Each structure stands twice: as structure tokens, then as C-alpha cells.
Amino acid sequence: MARQGVTAVYGGGNVGLMKELADAVLEESGHVVGVIPSALVERELAHGRLSDLRVVASMHERKALMADLSDAFIALPGGLGTLEEIFEVVAWAQLRFHDKPCGLLNVASYYDDLLHFLDHSVSSGFLAQNHRELLIDEQDPDRLLAKLADVREEAVSR
User: Fold this and answer.
1) Summary mean pLDDT of the chain
2) Disulfide engineering: 36 pairs with which of 12, 26, 58, 122, CB 3.0-4.6 Å?
């Protein structure tokens, strides 16, 4: 991300995979914006070395600000919070609340079962194919960034 001049926007925490991503971007002299609720700052979970740390009142405010600051969304392997956040922004795209691309970094095929489920949802008639295609998946980070940039350029040129 840093080599491509892409700013990382994330939840501002000092734990887990997203902390590792923030540290890697910072080590490459990249720009990282964290958005964290004050309750998590009080629990000493805020990353202390970010380019920009914004403290907000609630998780709802956090997600709204992160969405406003972002040109695209990427989910790394994660748990329920990760799934909730990526599906929320994909649902917003489905409803045309935004036209920002959404992607899964499918490291070591982590998301394969989820992708199969989404394809099953299409074949079962619960999800339209064009809505399934709103969620781009890729195992290679550089290729995922390129795909998201292509989708973003298409949206901007419309």
C-alpha cells in the first residue's frame, strides 16, 4: 500500500492483523489513519504511532467516518467484526449508497468457504449475480489493489 501511495484507513487498534498491517505501512513511510472509539482508547488499545488517529464516540461513528475517508474497502482474514464490517459496506454498495469497490484478501484460501456460500446464495436465488460481483476476491495483495483501482476508475468515469 505504501509503495503505491495508498493511505490505509482502519480501526486504529494496536492488536491483531490490522496492527501488523498498520506497522508495515508505517515502516514503508506510508500514511495510516486510525479511527477508534474513546472506550477503546481508555482500554489502551489505540495504536500509538499512526500518521493520524481520530477518536470518536461510538462504533457507529467509527464505521461512518472510516467509510467516508475510504475510496475502497478490503477485508483481511478475520472474525465476526471483520465480516460485519465488509458485509455492511457491500450492502451499502448494493443499495447504491456508494460506488466504492469492496474486496477480500483471501490469504491461504481463508475466505473460500464464504465465497462458495455466496455463490450458493446466487444459485439459490437469494443473491443477484451482479450483487455477488460487488465483492472482489484475490489471494495476492498487489493484484487485489489493482482490481480495486480498476473498479474505482470505472466508477469515477461513469
Assistant:
1) 95
2) 12
